[in-house]
Design goal:
By secondary structure, this protein is an alpha/beta fold. The chain is built from 19 helices and 15 strands. Helix 13 packs across helix 15. The radius of gyration is 20 Å and the shape is globular. It binds the ligand N[C@@H](CCOP(=O)(O)O)C(=O)O. The ligand N[C@@H](CCOP(=O)(O)O)C(=O)O binds next to helix 6. The site of ligand LJ64HWYM has 13 residues, from helix 6.
Length: 466
């Protein structure tokens, strides 16, 4: 499989190349040169497979040429063997129509583990093959940070620098990152928002001095391998719900558009998906873009759903590129003008292409609390506030009620105990697998929200390229 950049001028790479590169050298995001498509018979053959085997079948077309099928199978077995539920991503029924897809049974209690547990192993495999090393630079609004740290802490040949917006993640989220004590882990709290952190990460990939000295790598969903691994749970859930006989719809709480873009990829591969509902909080750039074509940033408003407090959604570029005719030069120009004006209008073809599968709903804080209460009172389920954003959107959907609607339950409720308690009166307990989180000592550095400060910190602490 060959991968091309959304901005058209970076060299095409194979799967190993894109996994280690993270972001393309022209600032774009990598995508497969064409979508692999399964036949109905191939999809029917996947029904009932254990998760690791299903993951091997679904991801094989993307990795072929860089791994053998047996190598991929072994990595999937290792990655998904660490999950606390045998099904890895179990479905829970809420009522006749509404379902939850629980994605939080990994080590750090959020959907990010599904991809990052595998990505850690992919890095190890490719780096030892090349006898090389990697300086990972990542940004998190709460969940990616701990999942990435868990995946690479203590691994040979990898340093990780994780930026989080100071004071804007939950206590559990922060502690999950800052209590991980391994010499290759560097947590940095920056002044500013997640968008500021994400912008610094992307800037470092374009900083010739840094890329000349270090092998810079990515763990955010700008890295194609992240999205690829997230495609699998759409297959797992849709097949369980009989998607070969009736399509399934999904409501996806999202900030960086990666999780829902993985659903789009599943649909391109032949999975019968009726609709993807993009669920946002009041930081609603995606909702405005999909409903009015208006992709303009505003100030980030801190909410009860901090992981989604994002105004610049990296993966939206992948959708615009794919729906807009895959014109790299036009995409590069559109992004240049967005970066200058902090605003852009979607083209007609981008709007039409997106509307074939996507719709969107925005949830304010009251609606989030109501959805939390709805799940508890109607189905006896305690959900996290991000999942509640998705559930609010799922309940608002006007789709044919015979189509099952699956809300992605992206995080464990115990990551956000205060909000859950405010809505339901119940304070969820942390599962024992996170251990004595509140007894452990924290360690992190604080830096101003300035690129130069982050660059100097990385320069001082990272190992030079090998
Ligand atoms: N919501 C994320 C933000 C980063 O998103 P990613 O999917 O690109 O890693 C978080 O919790 O950190």
């Amino acid at each position: 499989m060959e991968y091309i950049s959304t901005r058209g001028s970076a060299s095409a790479l194979d799967f190993e190349g894109v996994t280690l590169a993270g972001l393309a050298s022209d600032g774009g995001l990598y995508l497969p040169a064409e979508w692999p498509r399964f036949s109905e018979a191939q999809i029917a053959d996947m029904v009932g497979l254990p998760y690791a085997e299903l993951a091997t079948r679904v991801m094989w077309p993307f990795v072929e040429g860089s791994l053998t099928e047996e190598e991929l199978r072994s990595l999937c077995q290792q990655a998904y063997g660490r999950f606390a539920h045998k099904a890895v991503t179990p479905l829970v029924q809420l009522d006749e129509r509404q379902w939850l897809l629980e994605l939080f049974h990994g080590p750090t209690l959020a959907f990010k583990d599904v991809a990052l547990q595998l990505l850690g192993l992919l890095f190890e495999t490719f780096l030892s093959r090349r006898q090389s090393n990697l300086t990972i630079i990542g940004a998190t609004s709460g969940d990616t940070g701990s999942a990435a740290i868990d995946a690479v802490a203590g691994r040979e040949g990898v340093d990780i620098f994780m930026l989080h917006p100071k004071g804007r993640v939950s206590d559990v989220q922060r502690r999950q990152m800052t209590t991980a004590r391994a010499p290759n882990v560097h947590n940095i709290a920056i002044e500013g928002s997640f968008d500021d952190a994400q912008a610094m990460v992307k800037r470092m990939f374009g900083d010739a001095d840094m890329t000349g000295r270090f092998n810079i790598g990515a763990v955010n969903s700008i890295n194609w391998a992240r999205l690829m691994a997230q495609v699998v749970y759409y297959f797992a859930s849709a097949l369980q719900l009989g998607a070969l006989h009736r399509p399934v719809a999904y409501s996806v709480p999202t900030g960086n558009f990666g999780d829902v873009f993985a659903g789009y990829v599943a649909a391109q591969m032949g999975l019968p998906i009726a609709q993807l509902v993009v669920a946002t909080n009041v930081n609603d750039i995606l909702h405005r873009a999909l409903s009015d074509g208006d992709y303009s940033t505003g100030t980030v408003t801190p909410t009860d759903t901090p992981s989604m407090d994002i105004q610049v959604s990296s993966n939206f570029e992948r959708l615009l590129f794919d729906c807009g005719g895959r014109d790299g030069a036009a995409m590069a120009e559109q992004i240049r003008s967005f970066e200058a004006d902090k605003a852009m209008q979607l083209t007609n073809s981008q709007r039409e292409g997106a509307s074939a599968l996507f719709t969107s709903v925005r949830a304010d804080q009251q609606q989030v609390l109501q959805a939390l209460r709805w799940a508890h009172e109607n189905a006896g389920e305690v959900i996290d506030p991000h999942t509640a954003v998705g559930l609010h959107a799922a309940l608002a959907s006007e789709l044919d009620p015979s189509i099952p609607m699956v809300t992605l339950a992206t995080a464990h409720p115990a990551k956000f105990p205060d909000v859950v308690e405010r809505a339901t009166g119940l304070r969820p307990n942390l599962p024992s697998r996170v251990g004595d989180l509140f007894a452990r000592e924290e360690a992190y550095s604080e830096l101003p929200g300035k690129y130069d400060a982050v660059r100097d910190f990385v320069t001082q602490h990272a190992s030079p390229a090998a």
